[in-house]
Amino acid sequence: xxxxxxxxxxxxxxxxxxxxxxxxxxxxxxxxxxxxxxxxxxxxxxxxxxxxxxxxxxxxxxxxxxxxxxxxxxxxxxxxxxxxxxxxxxxxxxxxxxxxxxxxxxxxxxxxxxxxxxxxxxxxxxxxxxxxxxxxxxxxxxxxxxxxxxxxxxxxxxxxxxxxxxxxxxxxxxxxxxxxxxxxxxxxxxxxxxxxxxxxxxxxxxxxxxxxxxxxxxxxxxxxxxxxxxxxxxxxxxxxxxxxxxxxxxxxxxxxxxxxxxxxxxxxxxxxxxxxxxxxxxxxxxxxxxxxxxxxxxxxxxxxxxxxxxxxxxxxxxxxxxxxxxxxxxxx
Length: 332
Known about the structure:
This protein is of the alpha/beta class. It folds into two domains: 5-165, ATPase, nucleotide binding domain (Nucleotidyltransferase, domain 5); 168-220 and 240-329, ATPase, nucleotide binding domain (Nucleotidyltransferase, domain 5), CATH 3.30.420.40. Helices cover 27% and strands 30% of the residues. The chain has helices spanning 81-85, 100-104, 132-139, 168-176, 219-234, 240-249, 262-283, 305-310, 321-329, and strands at residues 5-6, 12-15, 18-21, 24-28, 32-36, 42-46, 48-51, 67-72, 75-80, 89-90, 116-119, 122-126, 143-149, 152-158, 161-165, 186-191, 196-202, 214-217, 291-297, 315-317. It has a ten-stranded mixed beta sheet. Strands 6-5-4-12-15 form a five-stranded mixed beta sheet, with helices on both faces. The longest helix is centred in the C-terminal third of the chain and has 22 residues, at 262-283. The protein is globular.
């Protein structure tokens, strides 16, 4: 007797105890790593990784909403908030595609209580989908992987991995929801991240205008500015990740220390925004009369709110900017 396969409206299918997912989207950013789980919920964890020694964390330790513990090929590691507590390293300090399998195991989830998942296509956002070294690293993800994820034994098969240019998902979602008022004009996406940011233009036909890509400073550069300004007072450099955490939280307090940079922040963020604006203006100078709108997305997007006012709405904030690109990737 053949197994009965049901295909619900969310695009997942279940055959016996094997969850079949038509598509998983994954966005490994410099500050956060995000994916969509089997129930359709967006999961976000800090982009920090820590390889665990035998004495670090109990063997039966479980992850949570902001941390995932993986055991694979004899290695045990944690990604997320727990990694930060254990002085793990930010993922942006290393080529993320070299760590692709380590990171993508986070998103290979079966249904609760089950252990098998098959993924027809895994989409991952990259700065350049044509990067051959990155593509070779991603190719290694295709196949079957057996591992333990937050205490659950998992057997995951990935049939195909496809690289998607960063911002492409955001552009697709903006077009679908009519966010760009002039669809038949050149429009753009400004993706503000932690390590780096990128501004991209799309033609009237929706093609990526690659020669006009502008790679820009992320909030890591902003944190460096603040650290330099603090140096005369503190006498030593501060942890940049903690500065970025304080910016994101709006506390401007570095970790559990008494160091507060609230009085420095406005000047530093204004300088950071001005640099972004000037570099975009210089790179796109010949096209400015033809550009309709630029949508601001990414985890650091809220910091660029002043650009909306300065540009009189030509640059505008996306709804839920941190996950806007991830949601759009499901359309590709």
